Amino acid sequence: MSLEMEWVARLVLGFVLSSVVGFEREVSFKPAGFRTHILVGLGSTLLTIMSLNAFPEADSARVAASIIVGIGFLGAGTIVKTAERITGLTTAATLWAVASIGVTTGAGYYLLAITATALAFIALKLTMFERGRS
Questions:
Q1: Is the residue at 73 inside a domain?
Q2: Residue 119, CB-side half-sphere exposure with 13 Å CA sphere
Q3: 116 within domain boundaries
Q4: For 56-80, b where at least 16 C-beta lie within 10 A, e where not — what string?
Q5: Which of left, alpha, beta for 15 (phi over 0: left; psi -120 to 50: alpha)?
Q6: Domain range for residue 114?
Q7: How do the pLDDT tens digits run along the chain, 134 residues long?
Q8: Which terminus has fewer CB within 10 Å in the chain: N or C?
Q9: Contact 107, 11 (CB under 8 A)
Q10: What is the enclosing helix (H) or strand (E) of 87?
Q11: 13 domain residue, yes or no
Q12: How many CA atoms does the CB half-sphere of 129 hold within 13 Å?
């Protein structure tokens, strides 16, 4: 497989993995759903591929760190605090996790990214263990 085809495969896998988490958020009627999670994962995957390959003399770890910090700011915008409760924390966490999965996929650690996606999906299904839920 050519190098460019490998990059395309990474991008497609980043799309698929982030869509798994996004699908769960969508069917749970959360504000950041399918498309948002796909775009965060896709962007993270692409930026990681580019940082590793287009700029070999640059420090790619700085790009990964910037992605995670930047998505943290995006996630912060999903958190809403009222007098009674705080909402959006899980949505913020899923955006951050999807960005991390995208970085991992873009770096070529496929099994790690797939495992993280499966664990994130399972974690989102564990609502029965949360306080205040029936």
A1: yes
A2: 9
A3: yes
A4: eeeebeebbeebeeebeeebeebee
A5: alpha
A6: 3-129
A7: 798 999 999 999 999 999 999 999 988 888 888 999 999 999 999 999 999 999 888 888 999 999 999 999 988 888 888 888 888 899 999 999 999 999 999 999 999 999 999 999 999 998 877 776 54
A8: C
A9: no
A10: strand 86-87
A11: yes
A12: 5
- Any residues with CB less than 8 A from the CB of 11 and at least 6 apart, and which? 42, 45, 46, 49, 106
Q: Encoding tokens for residue 56?
A: 């070999």
Position 36, amino acid: T
> Encoding tokens for residue 127?
């609502």
- Give SS3 for 130: coil
Other CB atoms within 10 A of residue 105 CB? 31
Q: Are 112 and 104 in contact (CB under 8 A)?
A: yes
Residue 71 CA, chain-centre distance (Å), reads 9
DSSP state of 129: G
Structurally, how many domains does the chain consist of?
A: 1
Q: Is residue 134 part of a domain?
A: no
In whole angstroms, how far apart are CA 23 and each of 17, 18, 26, 29, 100? 10, 9, 5, 10, 17
